[in-house]
Prior knowledge:
This protein has about 290 residues and is an all-beta fold. The chain has one helix and 26 strands.
Amino acid sequence: MMEQVPTTVLSDHPCHLGEGPTYDVTTDTAWWFDIREGRLFEAQLGSGGIRVHALGRMASALGRIDAERQLIVAEDGLYIRTLADGAMTLVCPLEADNPATRSNDCRVHQSGTFWVGTMGRKAEAGAGAIYAFHRGKISLLFPRISIPNSICFSPDGATAYFADTARAVLYAVPLNPATGLPRGEPEVLLRHTGIGGLDGSVCDADGNIWNACWGASRIDVYSPRGERLRSLSVPAKQASCPAFVGPDLSRLLVTSAWQDMDAAARAADPHAGCTFLLETSARGRAEPDVKLA
């Protein structure tokens, strides 16, 4: 059954393709992206103030380095962004010689290793991949991914999850918890059926996987064994990615998108592209900092 939980609109700025939410518990600040429009959103949750930063390029995710810097994953590489002035400095190219691809879903492992997904700009089959940015160097983990999504990690750091949305499959990968790097091959955890598709995910403190079901107006919660435990309603059809936010990490921020909607579809989905806060009766985990070296 679909649960209706208390839900508010955090931001009514409609994102073309909202993605990559994360939360800095040290400053009570949520961050997310509009990939298509090259925008970075910054929300001070305590005050409700929201700022929008123009990046000058498509970007999809960030990791906190320290109180002054972020690592931004963009269409052509990884950049250090200085919070004080927004200046961005290229650290590591990423498929910069392939104009047909861009970055997509990403998340930081507890070790500080950043898993980064790429995909074709037109979602071409097998055009993307998943990489690991580990101690300043980037390496290919899984090639020939069509739409990488749902990158997240179990609380003990020993398992990674990722999806290829085009294949409707969520995989589990055994990891070395100290490095965030694979120590085995991906295994199928679940196959998605029915309406919608597997988009972004995050793990809660109990190890359950909270997945945004693109095209179905909901968040699905799965156990580490792949059993669906809950489904929570989201007031936009194309929910894209969740993140736990708030001082006690008990609220779920959910991004959405109006991508590929014509005027009639947008009129029928007036909250398309908005960003929401859901009261979940669950607890998340603080996002780790990314380590550069």
